[in-house]
Amino acid sequence: MPVPDRTGLKIVDIDVKDVRFPTSLGGHGSDALHTDPNYSCAYVTITTEKGSKGYGLTFTCGRGTEVVVYNVRSLKKFILGKNAADIFADFAGFWRAITNDSQMRWIGPEKGVIHLAVAAILNSLWDLWARLENKPVWRLLVDMEPEELVSTIDFRYITDVLTKEEAIQLLKDKNNGKQKRVKYLEENGYPAYTTQVGWLGYSDETVKELCEKYIKLGFTHFKVKVGLNLEEDYRRCTQVRKYIGKDRFLMVDANQAWSVNEAIDWMKKLAPLNILWIEEPTSPDDVLGHATISQALRPYGIGVATGEMCANRVMFKQFLQSGGMQYCQIDSARIGGINEILAVYLMAYKFNVKVCPHAGGVGLCEMVQHLQYWDYASLSGTMEGRLIEYVDQQHEHFYDPTLVENAKYLAPKLPGYSTQFLPETLEKYTYPNGSEWQRMFKEGIFPPPDDTELANI
Ligand SMILES: C[C@H](O)[C@@H](O)CC(=O)C(=O)O
Ligand SMILES: [Mg+2]
After folding, report:
1. Is residue 165, in this structure, part of any structural domain at all?
2. How many domains is the chain built from?
3. Residue 57: in which H helix or E strand, if any?
4. pLDDT given at position 126
5. Do 400 and 445 share a structural domain?
């Protein structure tokens, strides 16, 4: 196990910041239900006695961030004073402890705000571990022996479909050729699709310009937001189909706008536009509803994609068991860190479902590239039908931003999970005292927080 020496690794500080970007001003990130999101995150920094740091975040929108920040603070006691090496040596045990505190469990368990907070903390720990090993996270994962990797997963609630022993065997079966696949990734990158062309708040002119831009950049897969008005969706999607031509791929995303029957009817109307997948057609909790939609849309060649709001590995298990998802969209900041995400990848592999991670949010592109790289090298061994979502937002705020060239994610090279913010970003966008927020309040662009907001309590 690549567990670092314990010396100086006692965690002496955990800081959490509310960081928000005013994306609603340009309609960036908008969809049927999140019509004016300000892309945000709860940003965690952990510091060890010897000064090593781990940076992690969970994505949120606007005011939701303050609630997550409070939840992170409520979990500090699980981290402070612990030695990071001890956490890594029994990572599954630590995971069970932080997700099952008897006084906190009632507000979960393993779902919602408290799980977002867990994700931010777990992400900072994986970042720290990779930095201590001087590797990007994906290499840390790829270089672990199957037993070591699997030892980080809590298998409670999923052993009916995947046991620890089976998981180890799946990884061992793929050991052959792993180094060749690593080389391939380093030389060729991993295919991306773009959502940037189709935010619901964008004008027709913007959509056209962006389609042209992303075609020039080499993209072959385009995702467009739908779900508010059928005629309008048909019109917009027809235009996008015209811009991208018949040989490129079109996906649509309803962000949970519909009931089950409505989703089926709506998508049958859009089907002539040749749609690869419908994403989040209905409630993210409706496993059987997704299975019904999947079945109804199969004859039209439309798959169902979901996962960005899937609460935990148990829900993923049921989506996979029921045939409710044909594209599994794990989110790096919603479920309990890499520990839980690995369980989902392993189950998806067993059910022969493609993982195409969700990345529409702050820092998500930065993280999911590591996960999908690991998947190709160590588990699925294929990129067939798989893509990483790419949204071109907030990358300039990161110390080690995602690099996409010719519609491919290039291999992250620096140690860590790529989510460290630049100091000037924190100075400007920490809410509500960052200099940019103060300017926007002064200029009346946004109202300052009122006394119902936690920032003022
Ligand atoms: C609110 C977010 O922008 C959401 O619309 C992202 C999303 O659904 C996606 O990227 O997919
Ligand atoms: Mg989506």
Report:
1. no
2. 2
3. strand 53-61
4. 98
5. no
Residues 115 and 17 occupy one common structural domain: yes
Complex-level ipTM beyond the 0.95 threshold: yes
pTM over 0.95: yes
Statement to judge: residues 442 and 317 lie in one domain: no
CB atoms within 10 A of CB 457: 9
Catalytic status, residue 225: yes
Residues of the chain with pLDDT under 70: 1, 455-457
Rounded to the nearest angstrom, the distance between the alpha carbon of 31 and the centre of ligand 1 is: 7
Among candidate residues 115, 135, 317, 358, the one labeled active-site is: 358
Do 208 and 61 share a structural domain?
no
255 lines ligand 1 (CB under 6 A): yes
- 304, 439: one domain: no
* pLDDT tens, residue by residue, 58-90: 999 999 999 999 999 999 999 999 999 999 999
Residue 457 pLDDT: 57
Count of H helices and E strands in the chain?
A: 17, 13
Q: Collapse the DSSP code of 232 into the 3-class scheme (helix H, G, I; strand E, B; otherwise coil) and give the result.
A: helix
What are the tokens at 157?
């609630």
Query: Is 315 in the same domain as 190?
Result: yes
198 lines ligand 1 (CB under 6 A): no
| DSSP label at residue 77 | G
Q: Provide DSSP, 296-364.
A: HHGGGT-EEEE-TT--SHHHHHHHHHHT--SEE---TTTSSHHHHHHHHHHHHHHTT-EE-----STTH
Which residue minimizes the CA distance to atom 6 of ligand 1? 360
Tell me whether residue 50 is one of the annotated catalytic residues: no
Q: What is the pLDDT of residue 4?
A: 85
Q: What is the pLDDT of residue 456?
A: 62
Ligand 1 atom with the shortest distance to the CA of 280: 8
Give the rounded percent of residues in the chain with a pLDDT score beyond 70: 99
Instruction: Say whether both 430 and 379 belong to one domain.
Output: no
CATH of the domain at 41: 3.30.390.10
User: Whose Cα sits closest to atom 9 in ligand 1?
Assistant: 360
